[in-house]
Amino acid sequence: MNSPAIARNIPDWDAPLPEALGYAWIHGETWMSGGEPIASVNPATGEVWGRFGDGGAPAVDAAVTAARSAFRCDWGRISGADRAALLLAWAARIAEEVDQLAWLETLEVGRPIADARTLIAQGPLLIGYYASMIPALEDRSDGAVRRARGVVGAITPWNFPTANVLIRAVPILAAGNTLVLKPSELSPRSAVLLAQLASEAGLPPGVFNVVPGAGHTAGAALAAHPGIDMIAFTGSTRTGRAIIQASASQSLKPLMMECGGKSPQLVLPDMIDQPAIWPGVFHTAFWNTGQWCAARTRLLVPKGGLDAAVEGLRAAAADWPVGDPRDPATRLGPLASGKQYDTVQDYREIARQTARVVPLSAVPDANGFYAAPELALGAPQDGALVQQEIFGPMLTVQEYADPDEAIRLADDSPYGLGATIWGADRDLAERIAAGLSAGSVDVIVAAAARPGLALGTPFEPRKQSGFGIEGGLAGIAAFTTPQAINYAG
Ligand code: NAD
């Protein structure tokens, strides 16, 4: 395999890894663990490229102690304005280290380097947004004071390593809590680097602690820890259930669960003949090789629309080459792990038995966990392809007879994360949205339009996709608790 061109400013792909990124970050310093090292495999090559220490329960204990002391002293006592200023200083450090974070994401989970940079560069905007919400938390017009909850434990997945951590950590810290974060075992280093940058920016020691490790060691210890005041989890529904049980084993604590999805996208009759929709339909289903909780992986088209969908998505795939994630021209990289690759192969086998499969592009002739985007036409509604989250590049395509059937098929899912409606008829779109148990619905009324970042609009997942409000004032207020102060006399 030829070496891909190296993107400007990205560290050399063979550059040695800063050793401290492979250990826990507790109380503003590296915490060397004696736990079993965990191997990291480069998804582009299938080869082991590094190891990191599993902090396990001892590191979780140390991190909870550090976070409690920081909550009682520095972080719990400073003003909202000072907290906002420190968070903005952190945002500035992240902006300076976008290349380093993107390099880590590409090596750890195969995120295409150009896409990784673009998304990470938006991280400072997220911090700025939540910092700007801090004054609103000080409103006492209902008589209650909003208090931070205390020490929050967060457990995150790997699919967008930096974004997963920031989306969780920023509202927690902005609301005045301290944090113990357990990142995915596939992507611990970007999380450790983010916490190091927070310390460099002046966040006091113990405010943002990271404990790398496996789910059944560090993750389970954090979920059950009686010193944690709230758990915020992002990951699969299966792990979410285990965390809910573990969290109640020694203490009661509030939970936020952002779990799996199998979201639909519905093309309405007035848009099925508009070619400008297909690049957007493709992006919404296959971005990040389909490893995206809110990916819209069930396409519903009006009766007779199947051919237009196949033709349109084939054409769109030409702009999304699958390739080495280190190459800046690559838009779809490999799957993140051998486990993810095996899971996708199992669903491909089911697709071959229960649907008509249309491959949309080819994969590179290389080792690594590559899987091309595929369509599965006419898969049965009650079968695994339609009902289960695959978390890979497969889009089911089904036809509906009328809007009522579209609503019924779209809503017939154990998940309730999101939906996209492609159609200019706003009344019909509103009727469909009202019929869906989905936390977030994008309505695309002009064929070439694309939804933007809607940080200010709160939503909550439903059904097996979890619970807990994300975004907007409600999204940051979720990490506070109202304390009533009743004056008499
Ligand atoms: P996962 O559930 O396997 O792991 C998520 C995290 O939980 C990891 O840090 C893992 O180590 C930890 N974990 C695993 N077992 C644990 C246990 N017993 N106790 C405590 N922690 C444990 O999920 P994943 O494979 O990392 O990520 C993919 C899943 O995440 C998909 O289902 C996807 O839909 C979901 N996801 C959801 C959102 C959202 O906002 N709703 C966002 C991104 C990803």
- The side-by-side strand order for the widest beta sheet comes to 13-14-15-12-11-17-18
Strand content: 15-25%
Runs in which pLDDT lies below 50 for 5 or more consecutive residues are: 1-8
Rg estimate, integer Å: 23 Å
Describe what this molecule looks like in 3D.
There is one protein chain. This protein has 489 residues and is α/β, with parallel strands linked by helices. The protein is built from 17 helices and 21 strands. The protein has helices spanning 56-72, 74-77, 80-96, 98-109, 113-120, 123-137, 161-174, 188-200, 215-224, 237-247, 278-286, 306-317, 338-354, 384-387, 403-411, 426-434, 472-477, and strands at residues 24-26, 29-31, 37-42, 47-53, 144-148, 151-155, 178-182, 208-210, 230-234, 255-258, 263-267, 296-302, 356-359, 374-377, 394-400, 415-416, 418-422, 440-444, 462-463, 466-467, 480-484. It has a 7-stranded mixed beta sheet with strand order 13-14-15-12-11-17-18, sandwiched between helices. A 6-stranded mixed beta sheet has the order 8-7-6-9-10-20, sandwiched between helices. Strand 17 (418-422), helix 16 (426-434) and strand 18 (440-444) form a beta-alpha-beta unit. The radius of gyration is 23 Å and the shape is globular. The N and C termini lie far apart (80 Å).
